[in-house]
What we know:
Elements: E1 8-10, E2 35-39, E3 44-49, E4 57-62, E5 67-70, E6 82-84, H1 101-132, H2 134-146, H3 152-155, H4 160-165, E7 169-171, E8 174-178, H5 184-197, H6 200-204, E9 208-215, H7 217-236, H8 238-241, H9 252-268, E10 281-288, H10 289-298, E11 315-317, H11 321-324, E12 334-341, E13 346-349, E14 370-375, E15 392-397, E16 403-411, H12 413-422
Parallel strand pairs: 5-6, 13-14
Antiparallel strand pairs: 1-2, 2-3, 3-4, 4-5, 7-8, 8-9, 9-16, 10-12, 11-15, 12-16, 14-15
Amino acid sequence: MRSRQRALIVPSTLGACALSEEQPCNATCGSNPTFICSYDEWSYFGCRATCGEVGSLVGYRNISSVRTSYDSLAVSNCGPDWQRSESVQCRQSECGASVDPLIIGLSAGVSAAVVVLAAIILLIFLWRRRHRIGKTGDSLEMASAAVQSLPQSLLWHMDPSRVDHEGWDKHGAIFRKVIAPSTSEHQIVEDLFYRYLHGQRFGNNGAIKSIYAVFNPKLASNFCSQRDILDGRLKSDPALFASGDWKRLDRSTQRQWVHECYCAIVSRIPWNSPGDRVPVIPMLHGTGQASAWKIVANGFSTLSQVDKGFYGNGMYFSSSASYVMPYLINKSAPALVVCMVCPGNTFPVVESRSDEKSLLGLPIRPGYQSHYVLTTADGNPCTSRLLDGQYFDELVIGQESQVVPVYVIELERAAVVQLGGQHSGAGKHNTMSGPGTLLE
């Protein structure tokens, strides 16, 4: 077997690439023949063309079997003893370049350098990505520690580990995930919305456009911290933070009914325990979609209005989707923000805005952390006990950290308008247009 030969270039004017001195290829490539003869790792001497289909194999000779062949590029260019090859791929070569071991070594070095450079770029990308989400990762870790104090059945709705494991989309400071229909997640959220927030009519009428699970690490951490702080205050100093003076006020019987209705809501929620000082209840806030996403990103306080609330100065919520619905009709893109709320010690409100002792624009009453009122469909306080289904409610929260958004339900406006027309009128007096209710 002949020894390996050093690759060489034959100038284009010669029009040939010698496999050996005894067996020249004598192939041409159009009017500008340029061929290189090279040795590769498969024990082939190859005659390769650098014009036409650049770098294509014209022919090669297998040293071990002393057999040569060609491919379709140059069928007529090689002798009849050359045989066709279907599998051999060849290298591209510049016309006139010197192909020798030095060049081959240099090419290998360049290839290695490209691989190393690609690896470096990848490492830089991963580092920058980690650096970019570093603060978010830290906030998720902080939120993970904070939410551990929550009951397990509540934790599912605001669990940072779900954000990480399920790959929620990141949008600025928040994470969100579309809750796909016909999934177990969708069923859980629907159950929450239908059973505890009276949202059946929205679902039955096709008003729900999409449901997003949302998570803001900062708001979640603040909520859990506030809940823990409030629990400690209610336990250590009930005289200051857990007043019960409403029992000694006028219309105490009516207040007692309001208080009982609030306690009934608390007891229906599966994660609340009897005697819990800091129960958490799901509540609704109706607004436009743009404002809903601002609430999720920045909280309620940054978007609160300066209007005086009929039942106190604060952020307004309701446990009834039917009651909130009329406030959505004038929104071009309506939405419901489902929030977890920690009301703390709640003051039962029976005063109307025209009452001599009205709470219009007043802060949350000392000794309490929220106001709760039962209303008729027109938004005025109930003046007597009503049968189930004939009254609604409003909850007024004074501190933003008592609230954390967990879902955004985007609604179809046409369906909302239709539902609003069927509803006989919550919102006639616009009682929910106090501070915290967002208007587009």
